[in-house]
Amino acid sequence: TAETAGKLSGFRLTEANLGVNADVNQQVLAHLTVSFNNALIKHSAFLKAALQAGLDHPKTANTRVQVREAYFVYHDSPVYVKGGLFDLPVAASNEQSRLIKSFTHSFTRLNATALQLGFYNNMGFDGGLFLYNGYRDADTDDSKVAFGGVANFHGVQQGAGYKLHIAAVSDSRASLATGLDPATTYPEYTSPSYDDNMLASTGLTAGDLGSSTSKAKVLYNADVAVNYDHFNAGVGYTHLANVSTTAGTEWKLSLLKFDVGFSNKANNMPFRVFAGYELANSKSATLFTVKHSLTVGANADVTPHMNVGAQFVQDKATADANGKNNHYFMLGTK
Question: Residue 330: is its pLDDT beyond 60?
Answer without folding.
Answer: yes
